[in-house]
Design brief:
Layout (H helix, E strand, L loop, with lengths): L2 H19 L2 H7 L6 H12 L6 H21 L9 H24 L2 H19 L9 H22 L6 H21 L5 H8 L5 H25 L5 H12 L2
């Protein structure tokens, strides 16, 4: 197994998700669903590492991907111009994807997955709502918000299929990758609502804000490297891929 095989596996999962939610009009106006390849990689990590992976688990991974796509569509809704045709169709696309994953879950009869994903969606949305609250949160609390948004559904997927041994690595990896992405965008002049909220939490220390985020990134890198160096279950090709994933982001 090499990086090419890993990337092909991610692309195949992405294709399978697209096939389940394809709708010509929605694609025309809103484009294909937004899927995070880093999240897809960690969803596939047990499979790539040789764990039991049957048709039901594959279908469950597709369902989790559709849930991510649905929530991502709703996250794209602008507070302004929310009545434009494109914005209305974006709302509809999120609702359509929601309907598709409920349909797949109902057909599967997988009660454990239904329960875990339902609870996971509630938790993720509760943390997403914090972006619109006036409450003041610390930087560490914002790290937790990011972690839940990025990892909650994959954590639930792991719990259903007893892949919890990968959870710490997944949490560290996805939080690190997202902080890297947010910092790079901010340094390029594009500051997300989330990053702006984080910046507000250290008001009065604006000059050191980027240093605070960089320190967290460095700490997470060290923690991730520790996981990789001490892991006796993860294949070497996957360790190398994870290291390259962090280096290239």
């Amino acid at each position: 197994m090499d990086a090419t095989y890993i990337q092909q596996s991610i692309e195949q999962l992405k294709t399978n998700i697209f096939m389940h939610v394809r709708h010509r009009t929605l694609i025309q106006y809103t484009g294909l669903p937004v899927l995070d390849e880093n999240q897809l990689f960690y969803m596939l990590l047990p499979f790539l590492n040789g764990e039991k992976w049957d048709e039901q688990i594959q279908e469950s991974a597709i369902t989790v991907g559709i849930v991510h796509a649905s929530l991502s569509e709703h996250d794209k809704i602008s507070e302004k111009n929310a009545t434009t045709k494109e914005q209305q169709l974006t709302v509809l696309s999120g609702d359509y994807y929601s309907g598709r994953y409920y349909e797949i879950l109902a057909q599967s009869g997988n009660i454990a997955l239904i329960r875990q994903l339902s609870e996971g969606i509630v938790s993720r949305c509760e943390h997403q709502i914090k972006l619109y609250e006036t409450s003041h949160y610390t930087v560490n609390e914002w790290y937790q918000v990011i972690s839940v948004i990025q990892t909650e559904l994959i954590k639930r997927f792991y719990q259903v299929y007893q892949y919890e041994q990968y959870s710490s690595l997944m949490h560290t990896g996805l939080l690190l990758l997202h902080l890297q992405k947010e910092l790079h965008q901010h340094q390029s002049g594009i500051t997300s609502n989330l990053f702006a909220k984080m910046q507000e939490s250290v008001i009065g220390e604006e000059s050191s804000f980027e240093l605070i985020i960089q320190k967290e990134i460095d700490d997470l890198k060290n923690l991730l490297n520790e996981y990789l160096q001490t892991s006796n279950i993860l294949k070497d090709d996957l360790k190398l891929y994870i290291q390259q994933q962090v280096a290239f982001n």
